[in-house]
TrEMBL record:
Name of protein: ATP-dependent DNA helicase RecG
Xref: PROSITE patterns: HELICASE_ATP_BIND_1, HELICASE_CTER
EC number from the UniProt entry: 5.6.2.4
Keywords: ATP-binding, DNA damage, DNA recombination, DNA repair, DNA-binding, Helicase, Hydrolase, Isomerase, Nucleotide-binding
Reactions it catalyzes: Couples ATP hydrolysis with the unwinding of duplex DNA by translocating in the 3'-5' direction; ATP + H2O = ADP + phosphate + H(+)
Source organism of the structure: Azonexus hydrophilus
């Protein structure tokens, strides 16, 4: 596969680079966003309002008007009628081209105006009578500021004439999958012939599009699968338990494991005993019990004579894990260390010394990956809420040991097609069963003009002996968003709820202040906790059974589901009240409808994927995995399944073609995947 650089001026190359176009091969797979049919002329009498058409016109007159604003107004006609062409920004050469008597072809959307039919800023060019029409539809490509469509069309035309479009799919595979040839498909999509159904092209369900989408997904699967196999070539500590630490932990717990937790533990235990590094994603809905599974994995590591590290993205979450793991493991003789950015110098020195010596489990925030943190014998790295960490941060933790095993956890359920596509380099374990005792949560939608009703509901709830969260999206006033802020809400509730203790926690408090407020809430000394999303994950207060979310329309579905999951953890019936401000946009309305109708995190995630696409789901991982440009994970789930099977087959039986396929679709970007 030739990766020859694009032949163009330096200025043009810079613009192309913004689109990820560096080589001739990149140009070949830079496909049109849409098409305009300039292969036929429509008579004015047959042009309908709202329709994009090409007209062939004679200019009747051209004048510059200044009211209501400066504009060039051109009257033109064909044999069937007249039309007005309006240009609010124009150059002298355009004015000259549209002089009286000129013959032009114009392309644009026809609409009704005050003086009859008109087009605003149509694309046009001057012609002589009898000039032939184009033989193909006009492709409109994704572009960037300062890069003319015509320049892209010219470069891509040259690449089509000279470029390498040889097959990378063996004939037997292509025929088995009933896919058309690549060269034919690429040529067709860049240059569709007259008469092609434009709707089929725009819907991207033409066989040529199917072939391109399959090749794109196959490149992703090949790359991730190759990264997976490469990791298996690396050595890692073999962690086989030498005592019954895990069994003793289970004996101490006041609950038994679910079937899903037992299955997950068996998979992880098997991985840790292998001589290559585990790379497993443990995902489960809010409250599915991921922490105990991680604790048992740590027990196996410690029993084998190695250390485990547990990293979480926020101080509140990390400390919750630390206190819980310390409570579980220290009575069993395990030394648990704590590292965070807020530790005072003396305490930090002590914890660093323990990490480098005899600590068996080290829990912390990003502080775990800073310079100066040395592990004595790191065998397992556990990363909670892994999508909140970047590729580089997860790598930094791995480098703290001699290629330790890695267990990543996520309480944001990942839809199956997304897991198959973007996480194909990982083994994925799903906790699809909630522990007994999780009470159902009732979700209520309330308009913000009924806030006082909600305040009354909170008061009644607390008088019954329980506690409540009240979550706000911002800390201080923003002129742009005019949202109710945590500070204002705290002050207002302080007035509205006399006799009740109201607390406030947000990201700008110092760590020890945050910890003090959270400890007071957990102890029952605070009745209503006003908070920003710092309490989104990990906070576990069984007596808190009411969650109020202010400006719910401003939150994403994943955040709403996570916040709702902070309640329903005890024996009481729990509620989540979503206060929204109207009028609602279409996406906000969809989100609130989904969260109201569903409690299953996987179904919520599936519908969220339809609304948002994969980019935000993948989170920081997207810096390591190129997003799909053409394939749609919901529409093309069958292609992902097919590509997974073909990737295995090609890596084993056709490695040269697999390499060529990767070069065509990913080129240098494949390096990003090796993290």
């Amino acid at each position: 596969m030739s990766l020859a650089p694009i032949r163009a001026s330096d200025a043009l190359k810079k613009k192309l680079a913004k689109l990820g176009l560096h080589t001739e091969a990149d140009l070949l797979v830079h496909l049109p966003l849409r098409y305009e049919d300039e292969t036929r002329i429509t008579e004015l009498a047959r042009a309908f309002t709202g329709e994009a058409v090409q007209l062939e016109l004679r200019v009747l007159n051209n004048e510059i008007q200044f009211k209501p604003r400066r504009q060039m107004v051109v009257r033109a006609c064909d044999d069937s009628g007249e039309i007005t062409l309006r240009f609010f920004s124009f150059y002298p050469n355009q004015q000259a081209a549209l002089s009286e008597g000129s013959r032009v072809r114009v392309f644009g959307e026809v609409r009704g105006g005050f003086f009859g039919l008109e087009m605003v800023h149509p694309r046009f060019h001057k012609i002589a009578e009898g000039d032939p029409l184009p033989a193909e539809m006009t492709p409109i490509y994704p572009s960037t500021a300062g890069l003319a469509t015509s320049a892209l069309q010219k470069l891509i035309g040259r690449a089509l004439a000279d470029g390498d479009l040889s097959e990378t799919l063996p004939d037997e595979i292509r025929q088995r999958l009933k896919l058309p040839g690549l060269a034919r498909s690429i040529h067709f999509l860049h240059r569709p012939p007259p008469g092609t159904d434009v709707d089929t092209l725009h819907a991207r369900n033409h066989p040529a599009w199917r072939r391109v989408k399959f090749d794109e997904v196959l490149a992703q699967q090949l790359s991730l699968r190759r990264a997976y196999l490469a990791r298996r070539e690396q050595g890692a500590p073999v962690l086989v338990a030498q005592d019954d630490l895990g069994a003793r932990l289970l004996d101490r717990l006041p609950f038994g494991l679910t079937g899903a937790q037992l299955r997950a533990m068996a998979e992880i235990a098997g991985d840790l005993a292998q001589p290559y590094p585990m790379q497993r994603l443990l995902q489960g809905d809010v409250g599915a019990g991921k922490t105990i599974v991680a604790a048992l994995a740590a027990c196996q590591t410690i029993s084998a004579g190695w250390q485990a590290a547990f990293m979480a993205p926020t101080e509140i979450l990390a400390e919750q894990h630390y206190l819980k793991l310390k409570d579980w493991l220290e009575p069993l003789g395990v030394r648990v260390a704590w590292l965070s950015g807020s530790l005072k110098s003396k305490a930090k020195r002590e914890q660093l010394a323990a990490t480098a010596a005899d600590a068996q489990l080290v829990v912390g925030t990003h502080a775990l990956i800073q310079d100066g943190v040395d592990f004595a014998r790191l065998g397992l790295a556990i990363v909670d809420e892994q999508h909140r960490f970047g590729v580089a941060q997860r790598l930094a933790l791995r480098k703290k040991g001699s290629n330790p095993h890695q267990l990543m956890m996520s309480a944001t359920p990942i839809p199956r097609t997304l897991a198959m596509s973007y996480y194909a380099d990982l083994d994925v374990t799903v906790l699809d069963e909630l522990p007994p005792g999780r009470t159902p949560i009732k979700t209520r939608l309330v308009a913000d003009n009924r806030r006082q009703d909600v305040v009354g509901f909170v008061k009644k709830h607390v008088e019954e002996g329980r506690q409540a969260y009240w979550v706000c999206p911002l800390i201080e006033e923003s002129e742009a968003l005019q949202l109710q802020t945590a500070q204002e809400t705290y002050e207002q509730l302080f007035v509205d709820l006399p006799g009740l203790t109201v607390g406030l926690v947000h990201g700008r408090l110092k760590a020890d202040e945050k910890q003090a407020v959270m400890a007071a809430f957990a102890a029952g000394d605070i009745d209503v906790l006003v908070a920003t999303t710092v309490i989104e994950v990990g906070v576990d207060v069984p007596n808190a059974s009411l969650m109020v979310i202010e400006h719910a329309e401003r939150f994403g579905l994943s955040q709403l589901h996570q916040l709702r999951g902070r309640v329903g953890r005890g024996q009481y019936e729990s509620s989540c009240v979503l206060i929204y401000a109207g009028p609602l946009g279409e996406i906000a309305r969809q989100r609130l409808k989904i969260i109201f109708e569903h409690t299953d995190g996987f179904e919520i995630a599936r519908q969220d994927l339809q609304i948002r696409g994969p980019g935000e789901f993948v989170g920081a991982r997207q810096s390591g995995v190129p997003l799909l440009r053409y394939a749609d994970l919901e529409m093309d789930a069958d292609l992902v399944e097919m590509a997974r099977e073909v990737a295995e087959e090609m890596l084993t039986e056709h490695p040269d073609l697999a390499e060529k396929h990767l070069q065509r679709w990913l080129g240098a970007r494949e390096e990003l995947l090796k993290s």
